[in-house]
Amino acid sequence: MKAGAFLYPWDVVGDPDAAARIADLGVRQVTLASAYHSTRALTPRHPAHRVVTAEHAAVLYPSDPDRWAGRALAPYRQTWTPGDDPYGEAAGALAAAGLEVHSWVVLAHNSRLGAEHPGTSVVNAYGDRYPWAPCIARPAVRAFLVDLAAEAAARPGTHGTELESCGWYGFAHLHAHDKVAGVGLGEAAQYLMSLCFCPECREGYGAEGADPRDLSAAVRRALEPAWSGAGSPESGRDGIEKLLGPERADATLRWRDRVARTFQEEAVASVRAAAPPGFQVLLHADPVPYRTGANVGVGADHILTVADGVVLPCTGPDSAREAVIGPFAGRGGVRAANFGIVTGMGGSPHTLERDAAHAASLGADELRLYHAGLASGPDLEAVATALSRLG
Question: Would the pTM of this model clear 0.90, i.e. be above it?
Answer without folding.
Answer: yes
